[in-house]
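SAMPLE LOG
Freezer: B-3
Tube label: C17
Construct: single chain, 506 aa
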Amino acid sequence: MHHALQIQEILLNIFGYSRDPSITSTNLPALARTCRAFKEPALDVLWKELHNPSPLAQCLPEASHYSQTTPHGKRYSFSKPLTQIEWGILRSYTRRIRSLYNYGDGLNWESVSTFLNPPTTEPLFPNLRSLSAARLTEVKIKHLLHMPFPSLISLDLFAIKPKDLHSLQGSLESFFKFSPNISKLRILLSQPDMMFSKFFSTYICRWRNLRTVDCSNIALDVDAFSHLSRMPAFTRFHCPPNATLPPADSPLFFSNLHHLNLRSEFLDPISQLLSRIRVPAITDVTAYVEKCPSKHAFSSLASIQTSAIGHTLQNLRFDEGLGIIMQDRRDVMYVLGFEDLQPCKVFSNLRRIYLDLGWDVNLSDGEMLTLVSTWPHLEHLFINEECGWNTPGGITPNGLLRLLQTCPSLSEIGLAIDTRSYTEFRESPASLGLTLPSTFTIDVLDSFIEEESIPAIAAFLAGIAPRSDFSFRAYKCWRFTTNRKDHEARWYDAYRRANVLLSERC
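STRUCTURE (predicted):
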């Protein structure tokens, strides 16, 4: 055997490729049985991640466990108390586990609770670094959060029901003693709870090494915000804006925060929070709201901090979600225009922009080109992907060609296309020096198209497509459009014809 294959770090790197889902799962067990040099690194890679604890039962002698078929798949159980030898077998595998997902799934809960009382005081999972669990009941919460995980840095608990919050609160008090080094924390409740929010705001201040916090339906108070702003490595924050904000004349500085995700029923609380914090290193901002914002509310959000983060922001997303789309039409229908997006022109390093306001959209060729000319590195551009533009107009095919020329890295685009009077493909991409990325997606949203425009649009699509399998979407938005089925059928007819032209070209 070559001496390089006796170095564990090299073997771990090589065997790591065998975890690829496309590679048969028998590779690693076979490698572990090949020779002594391969056994330990192969087992380390094989047991590094578990999607549930059931393999721990399957590794024991057949007399120690049995399985039952349930609507959710096989569920394993221990058939008797574990012997000292069987505990030793378990430990030989649990020490290798670094990530455990869906804790409590795949293994009968009475069997899982056995892990709480091993025969020695040593932790059963001494090297576990990431743990996640969902829909935990009161009993399961008490069990899970009273187990020692000395190496744990990532905790993910979600879909916690209101009736189990008291148990969660008490168990978290002791959990801090067992796992004091958490850096990634995600706790999501099935519905907001004010009392738990107060507890959690105090509790979160105990951890000193937080890098990521996701509590998108737990409202933190100003003390918790202040604590997180002092974390030197704090880079990712998902939270709802809270009425308790820092004073306007004393904003909080999150010096290394890169990702900020805010969710609220209305837009105003998000704007107020953004006006009270400073995020000089921010690269990603996402805002979700449940109710359609007014013109004034959106303009207030768009103008906040734009000059301070103009050179750092790379990804901007504003999304109402599907709730607003299914609501009755409002008395006042706002229209997204060029003046609404002007504040975004300062984001010179923008890579992705995704806006879905629930408004109609009115943007011309010249206005879109003016906007994207300030975003030369743009890779993804979507405006009202879910809601559509609700207009017979949009950007013209020739305007789209120039937009793609302005942003050569653009690989995904979702805009309404104005095909009115477009019956001839006059300008070729080659004449513009247009070279798109090898993978390209175009979504024409709720664009109108008439029968006479189909051949020209097919030639246009074939002209801009970098390869014959480029992705195309139309009418995936939720808003009702007059003659929707007719326009959708025409667009996909144009797409099929474009693929025929591409095949002939090849």
